[in-house]
Amino acid sequence: MNNKLIKFNLSQRKSDNIPEIKSGDIVRVHRKIKEGSKERIQVFEGIIIAIKGKQSSSPMITVRKVSNGVGVELVIPIYSSDVDKIELVKRAGVRRSKLYYLRDKSAKSMRLKYKDMADFAKVTEEKKENIIEEKAETETKKESSAEKENKKEDRKDKTGKDNGEKDDKKKEK
């Protein structure tokens, strides 16, 4: 029964423009705001301090920012039609799923270790390049060791004996 409910909830989600987010991520939420007959998009950038209902059809995130010394929090349903898109800006290394303790801290004392996503992309590209270089080096080493073995076999074929047999005959004399 529980698996059926989870499958149904997942099928109800719209999956466009929603990255994989965690607590501690800095995100930009683009929300549609209706003012009379006009509609505009407002951007709210802050840190995700909580995610509720991850398996439901509409999980909620709590996004917090400090604006002019005043903390502002929004509780936003991720798959709402009012949410245009969510951009992932940075990712912090946090060890908790609920970061409510950040409410009591000032912006300056909140020194989390962030990973800039642009730098993260550069690092992954560098890692790929290093992996490719390492593979090329190991292939050249394998080729050189294979060439050495071929040379040894060629020596055996020419003399009919390998170097080890010659050493044994010298010892016998």
Structure description:
The chain is α+β, with helices and mostly antiparallel strands and 173 residues long. It contains three helices and six strands. Strands 4-3-2-1-5-6 form a six-stranded antiparallel sheet. The longest helix is centred in the C-terminal third of the chain and has 43 residues. It is elongated and about 95 Å long.
List keywords for this structure.
elongated; 6-stranded antiparallel beta sheet; 37% helix; alpha+beta; 173 residues; single chain; SH3 type barrels; 2 domains
Q: Main sheet, how many strands, which sense, barrel?
A: 6 strands, antiparallel
The structure class reads: alpha+beta
Separation, N- and C-terminal Cα atoms: 86 Å
Radius of gyration based on Cα positions: 31 Å
CATH architecture of the largest domain: Roll
**How much of the sequence is in beta strands?**
25-35%
How many DSSP-defined strands?
A: 6
- What is the 3D shape? elongated
Topology at a glance:
Elements: H1 2-12, E1 25-35, E2 38-52, E3 60-67, E4 70-77, E5 83-92, E6 114-116, H2 117-159, H3 163-172
Antiparallel strand pairs: 1-2, 1-5, 2-3, 3-4, 5-6
